[in-house]
Request: fold
Amino acid sequence: MDFILHVPVIGLLLQFIGYLVGVMTTNGSLIITLSTPIALGALCGFMNERSGVVNIGIEGMMLFAAFVGWYVAALVNGGAPTSPGPLGITFPLLVGLLAAIVAGVAVSALHAWLSITVRANQIISGTIINIEALAITGYLNLLISQNPIPSAGNFQSFHVPQGVASVPVLGWLLTTFLGHGPITLTMLVLVIVLQILLFRSRWGLRTRAAGEHPRAAETLGIDVIRLRYRNVLLGGVLAGLAGAWFTLEYIGTFQGGMTNGRGFIALAALIFGRWTPIGAFGAALVFGIADALGQAVSFNPPSGDLGAVLSGVPEQVFSALPYLVTIIVLAGVVGRSIPPAADGQPYEREAKAT
Amino acid sequence: MVVSEAASSPAASKPAALEMRGVTKRFPGVVANDHIDLDVRRGEIHALLGENGAGKTTLMNILYGLVTPDEGEILLGGKPVTIASPADAISQGISMVHQHFMLVPVLTVAENILLGEEPMANPVLMDRKAAHTRIRELGRFFGTEIDPDLRVASLSVGWQQRVEILKALYRNADILVLDEPTAVLTPQETKEIFAVLRRLTAEGTSIIFISHKLYEVLEIADRITVIRRGKVVGSRIPSETDEDDLAELMVGREVELTVDRGESHPADVTLAVAGLTVSDDRGHEVVHGLDFEVRAGEVFGIAGVAGNGQDELVEALAGLRRPAGGTVELSGRTITGASPRRLHNLRVGFVPADRHRYGLVLVFPLTDNSVLTSYYRAPYSRGLVRDADAIGRHAEQVIKDFDVRTPSPLVHASTLSGGNQQKLIVGREFFGDLRLLVLDQPTRGLDVGSIEFIHRQVIAKRDAGTAVLLISAELDEVLELSDRTAVMYRGRLVAVVDGRSATREEVGLLMATGGREGPPPIIAEGAA
Ligand SMILES: Nc1ncnc2c1ncn2[C@@H]1O[C@H](COP(=O)(O)OP(=O)(O)O)[C@@H](O)[C@H]1O
Ligand SMILES: [Mg+2]
Reply:
């Protein structure tokens, strides 16, 4: 404790802010990459919860999709090298991506059936998915690793041409936002498209109505059950993309439990972002920054007083940063961020009014 | 059974727009609709009259596809139709304004109106401009335009009801069902809506108008069908009937429409409220410095449109919400922010508006419910042990004195009808010698028999020297019971009038405008 007393705290804080800004500018691209699974997971939650279905099984959906996508890609690949197209796209990787999406949709179908048709407790349904995904993928991975097959590799980032990249500001913007693999790029497009659709499209209006007051929606002729099914299944597509990001884009291999709580952080991002796509993306960036900061401190530590102070902090604290940020964010925001009014309530058709 | 087929009625010669034949619906333990026949002609206003629980809403929910009937058929323009969902009803030209708001509070006026039938600019995006034009047009039909971009949550109750009606108009219905649309309106707003209904029938729309207010039905209807306990018990035309006749038909026996309340003899000030300020859950101040007194032996009524701060006022007086400022005194003792238990110990009774949330524990037997406010003290409890016998005896007493109809004191409160649940609460809260009674909408949703009974008990308490504070959005109830009537408007008491000479119109106008000139505001109190 006492070394803090010797260093002026204000000076330290300024140094830290300077370091943070440095990390954010030099690692802008990494931050967006790291926030991709969180943003996609949050979009999955968004699709569910805006229509009135709580989904805490995003973590499990992502993990399952990550495994299926990786394994199917490897199987299709069969060890033979294929020459990649732009963004490192190969036939096996595309099939793997499709398989990951199908896996996400399949798990979502289970969640939809339990939550909407059976009207089971949605928290328990999500919990089951998380536990089962961890166990099943871990077990299958163990089986496979006894007889390993080579992975199909992964998607590559788009390279902004050197000439453009060296233009001040514009070059930075382009490399930060476009220097990514196809899944991250898709995420960026989806955030904008879903934001517009939520407030401008018929689908968005009906989704909001079903999540806020399903009975009112039904009295206007809207089939709430079908709408919720469709949204939860579409959410599965997004969870599938998020899973594929781990094994087909970020790294080209699978490890047990590799989603590492990103699905739960996605839920926090959804709440922090007030259940809107742009808000959730902004929140995902905050977690991406925490993640990137944790990495930067160990690979590229700051110099001077700040470096001295930080070197006294155990490394694990920095790895834990995204989770600490989650706790702080949730403690500060929960209660002020208002979920859709009918979120988590199963809908029954026959009128129960008196 | 049909008294007059009224050849004189202008609608008589017109064809039937809707016929319901032999419609039957059974819920566990109750036949909500028992072979109901109903025919509605083109361009007429057909009133469905019946007590709470008679089966009016169920019948209309069947017509609207929300409830599946067990038996019976529906004919539109002479042809049998199947209506399996609201979507079917809408496509057949039926619209309905439901008894409880079917509005999505966080959506805008425009979004609420368009939902389900959105004008599209292209296959994906909505055409907001076309929508707004259409909504402004419809608004003009009402005589007042409404900003389509306002959030519904921010509207006053009266305007929310107008949006409900706009929703129905937007769909160009041939048959428009209105289920107790006036329950939340002031008399002036009711008149305005009646004018709109008349214009609609002139254009050929058929209207089914549901109410249990006799004078309204007599004013607006071309024909009246009366339902009692799920059966049609008669049919009338307004010119050949009156309130007493309709009341008897509706209840099945002669009823006194007003209790004989006699003279009151106000004594000392019991409740003195000074500068009371209360905030809502979001921290907005919604009760602004109220001052009033209630004397022993009088009923002080507070009328007002729902949502003008009454809920917060009641909670502050009942110990459920801490006032932000001001003082409350009971017989000279300060009780500002006192807990419910302390209030009960000071002999204050409280009947909450929401009997399921605050009044009863539905899964407890009547015995335990009868001592919810006193279970911890003798004779119901000795030390740590409750005395089941004493509690049982108390429950029997309440059940007997307050006419609670139940097979046994040991059944769960949830098995009783609303009226009997309420009589149980009243029995518990009115028990013994009280200093003050706080009554929040004490007869909401009850049948005429229960209302009559509770009203008589209130007068009896008053005559025994209790100070009674009655808060109700039901204007007729306030006028009927109060010795002095105050009007609450936007968190203030804007006027106190004599309870006996005040007219419905006079108080209604105060409720709508707060006594100020100009049209009543659209935005509700406390809404941003
Ligand atoms: N969904 C339901 N389940 C069980 N009972 C119901 C249901 N809806 C209505 N009821 C019962 O049917 C009867 C008629 O109710 P309702 O049609 O709402 O009457 P009204 O509209 O005339 O007040 C009441 O006894 C009510 O408790
Ligand atoms: Mg009803």
Observations:
- The first helix of chain B runs from residue 56 to 63.
- The two ends of chain B are 54 Å apart (CA to CA).
- The pocket of adenosine-5'-diphosphate (ligand 1) is lined by residues A 351-354; B 27, 30, 32, 50, 52-58 (CB under 6 Å).
- The interface with chain A takes residues 53, 57, 61, 64, 66-68, 85-87, 89-91, 96, 98-100, 102-107, 111-112, 114-118, 120, 124-126, 128, 167, 418, 445 of chain B (CB under 8 Å).
